[in-house]
């Protein structure tokens, strides 16, 4: 809340961002915590198997390329026949596994038996292990004794790494595929390698199998967590969409009900004012004894009370109807060039009696030479009268009211009316700006009102494309700002200079 030493001009320049809704932030944090707590607990076996099938289908090409590269390398060193048999066998084994994954992907989810398909996939990987086991038993007589077994171990390591990455969604796939090849390698390479070197290679393969299995398990856990978050996110989005649909429907119904209420009140203008005019007219005639003296003074007081009450009721009805016409879209603006200083001066003249009655000091700060404003004079006058009337109502006797008219930082024009009354608590400002809303302290320290003055000001300023702001500090006063946009400020057009007439040419002699 700005201090009262801050002028209205600075208040207009300041554009405060609306603070984030604390309840919304709390709900978002609660939902995020719920996601973190539940992630990984749900059973997503079908989605995991589906991820495995898609990954295997996408990685089949890379496995085939690896087999062809190894087979071509073996062909170059003189193992053509054995490498061709191994390549056909291995590609055939992977083809069987690929057909199984394709059938799984095409089967409807409600017809899937998770355990049955897991066994099928494990069996498929065991079949691919036959191809790699055959590769581990190949011997090269023309090669160096230590070179070819080392190359075989290197190829098995690469194949294990590829399988662990591609088939990480299926736990145990790496073990099912390479347990048999490692056993075959340890048995066949023993006769060709020194014991120390052979033991080292076997230990390296076993350690690599354990390591890649651990990596695959870690990837599997990460995939499950991702599925859990995805499921929770989809559920949250569905809940938000449902809540949003319910909110839109409730808002639509509220708007329809409010519009129906506004149309009803706007159409009741004649029906409400006609009997009130009769009450006001006849009560005034009776209180002034136009048709003759009344025999009893009490009747005269009653007639005066009826006239006062009717006048108050008429003012209330007029304000309700004005606000209802604005909400119903039946309030039309008769726009014309207007000077804010002139409208404010006329409104001050109309409030002079009330100002003098409470001995209120009025201070005026008007910027001179303000250009015309394209606005509805009647609406602008009502805005000024409502703000000034509130200021007079809540300003104590011998108080002070400041009125300012000038430029805004954006090139618009504003009206500022500030009093030194009791002020409004910060939490009650939204209540005061709502229809029929009144502040608690203001009610106790001032005369009663309808609570429609400020909502009407807001509505009229919105129709002009402007803005109304209310600043208040408890026990120091209240300031109302009516801001008109720069688009309504009229610029003076420069005068059109007449074009000089061309000089007449002398006629040629005949």
Written overview of the protein:
The chain is α+β, with helices and mostly antiparallel strands and 510 residues long. The chain folds into three domains: 45-237; 269-328; 335-488, Heat Shock Protein 90. Helix content is 63%, strand content 9%. It has helices at 8-13, 22-38, 45-76, 80-106, 114-137, 147-166, 173-188, 195-267, 269-287, 297-328, 340-350, 352-357, 377-394, 429-432, 440-445, 453-463, and strands spanning 335-338, 361-366, 373-376, 400-407, 413-419, 467-473, 477-484. The chain has a five-stranded mixed sheet with strand order 2-4-5-7-6. It has a two-stranded antiparallel sheet with strand order 1-3. A hairpin with a 5-residue loop joins strand 4 (400-407) and strand 5. The model is unreliable at 1-20 and 35-42 (pLDDT under 50).
Task: Pick out its properties.
alpha+beta; disordered N terminus; 7 strands; elongated; 9% strand; kinase; 63% helix; transmembrane; five-stranded mixed β-sheet; 3 domains; two-stranded antiparallel sheet; 510 residues; Heat Shock Protein 90
Helix content: 55-70%
**Largest sheet entry:** 5 strands, mixed
Span of the ends, CA to CA: 91 Å
Strand order of the largest sheet: 2-4-5-7-6
Q: Could you say which structural class the secondary elements and strand pairing correspond to?
A: alpha+beta
Radius of gyration: 45 Å
**Total discrete domains:** 3
